[in-house]
Specification:
The chain is built from eight helices and ten strands. The protein has helices at 7-10, 14-25, 43-57, 98-116, 118-121, 127-137, 184-197, 221-227; strands at 4-6, 36-41, 71-77, 92-95, 139-147, 150-161, 167-175, 209-215, 230-231, 236-241. The strands form two sheets. The chain has a seven-stranded mixed sheet with strand order 4-5-6-7-8-3-9, with helices on both faces. It has a three-stranded mixed sheet with strand order 1-2-10.
């Protein structure tokens, strides 16, 4: 996956921002796989950092895609978490496997890319390769809904990555177009949060907080708040590309 930086965890003062810009500017270009990376953070921090790196490298000014210009961070902890069980008897939430679920997961992600404008921002991405990378680099679970005509079908998915000792991030929350507004997104998100909070000796991750980012224009705010997420500061996500 391309490098992603969360500035809230890394930068507290301008001197740290300058040091981080120097570090990025001197990294081996292998971290710029697919010719881009992203930096997310409060608008003033992310703008300063990404322009500093561009200046140091002599690269063109970075882009702030319209569809990613107002991401809203959400945070949930043990005190605000509201569990949401599966929505129907017989439905299953389990780990995604490459052998059984990859093609269906790629279909969901393809829909997600078209609906969010991801193709306009990252046109060179290969959906199947991207999904394979997601599954192998983190913990990805799927919601499998019962079906009258066959085995349970993968209708929603979400993953956890970007872990620190006390915090883990949820990303890539998708629900198939034909299965939205049925509670599947809340259920899969809730299952991941519960796994993150469960103690390590009980098979969980033992985290204190779970974070995610959502686009206010996508209409998912109410769903995340039902699970217990509260708003953080608006942040920007910059796309940083080689010339």
């Amino acid at each position: 996956m391309p490098l992603a930086l969360d500035l809230a965890e890394l930068v507290k003062v301008d001197e740290q921002l300058e040091l981080l810009a120097d570090w990025l500017a001197h990294q081996d270009e292998s971290f710029m796989r697919e010719n881009y990376t992203t930096v997310q953070g409060r608008p003033e921090l992310s703008s300063k950092l990404i322009h500093l790196v561009s200046e140091k490298l002599g690269w063109p000014a970075p882009k702030l895609p319209r569809k990613l210009s107002s991401l809203r961070p959400g945070v949930v902890d043990h005190s605000t978490f509201v569990p949401h069980p599966t929505t129907a008897k017989g439905d299953v939430i389990r780990l995604i496997t490459l052998s059984d679920d990859l093609n269906r997961l790629a279909e969901l992600y393809e829909q997600f890319r078209m609906d969010t404008g991801d193709y306009d921002i990252f046109p060179a991405r290969n959906t199947l390769e991207e999904v394979t990378s997601y599954v192998t680099s983190g913990i990805f679970w799927g919601y499998f809904a019962t079906s009258d005509s066959g085995p349970p079908e993968l209708v929603a998915a979400a993953g956890m990555r970007r872990a620190t000792p006390n915090v883990v991030g949820i990303s890539f929350v998708v629900t198939g177009r034909d299965f939205r507004k049925r509670g599947y997104g809340a259920s899969i998100t809730s299952a991941l949060v519960n796994h993150a909070f469960k103690s390590i000796d009980k098979g969980g991750l033992g985290k204190k907080q779970v974070t995610l980012f959502y686009d206010e224009s996508q209409g998912t705010e109410k769903m995340y708040k039902r699970v217990g997420f509260v708003d953080g500061e608006t942040c920007n996500l910059w796309v940083f590309q080689k010339p």
